[in-house]
Write a structure and sequence with these properties.
Cytochrome Bc1 Complex, Chain D, domain 2, binds heme C, 7 helices, about 0% strand, about 150 residues, 2 domains, mainly alpha, about 65% helix
Length: about 150
């Protein structure tokens, strides 16, 4: 990413030379410097949450992955092949699958009659669909799967 602090560093060094002139020039540059630092601090705080959100999982993408790759066997959070292994919260808890890691693991590597998806889905898509499954399990698979 383009680092604004480098630009300010360069500006500050220019200012330093200019500010050697008089006492008031010196004070002025210090004040401007301080103001700039405060602005940069504020900007960082404002931008951070957006960066963090972009890093985390995306339920809309998870929903799309689910429709394309999972719904065939797990329609409405069920399981058409193994009745006890649904994506409902109580089943996930009983089978130790009620975590992002657990779900990501079974999606990546597969298990028995469920195939592995590591060659069809990216790491991010697997995280997204795992988050989507957990979210739906917690809300009872009531939302229409769009
Ligand atoms: C071909 C059918 C099929 C597809 C497609 C499929 N699964 Fe499965 N899934 C199964 C079967 C069968 C099991 C039970 C595996 C076992 O434990 O024997 C299972 C188990 C699971 C479990 C554990 C459930 C529990 O209660 O233990 C999760 C979570 C899961 N699948 C998520 C997914 C996700 C997410 C996708 C899409 C990326 C997906 N599955 C695609 C057949 C499928």
């Amino acid at each position: 990413m383009f680092d604004i602090r480098l630009v300010f560093g360069w500006l500050m060094s220019k200012c330093d030379r200019w500010s050697q002139g008089t006492e008031s020039r010196f004070l002025l540059t210090r004040l401007v410097g301080l103001a700039c630092m405060t602005l940069i601090g504020a900007a960082t705080i404002l931008v951070m949450p957006a960066a963090i959100a972009a890093d985390s999982t995306d339920l809309a993408s998870g929903s799309q992955v689910f429709q394309a790759h999972c719904e065939g066997c797990h329609i409405n959070g069920g399981n058409i092949i193994r009745r006890g292994k649904t994506l409902k919260l109580n089943a996930l808890q009983r089978n130790g699958m009620d975590s992002l890691e657990g779900i990501a693991q079974i999606v990546t590597h597969g298990k028995n009659n469920m195939s592995a998806f590591h060659d069809r889905l990216t790491e991010q898509q697997i995280q997204d669909v795992a988050a989507y499954v957990l979210d739906q399990a917690e809300t009872g698979w009531k939302e229409p799967q769009k």
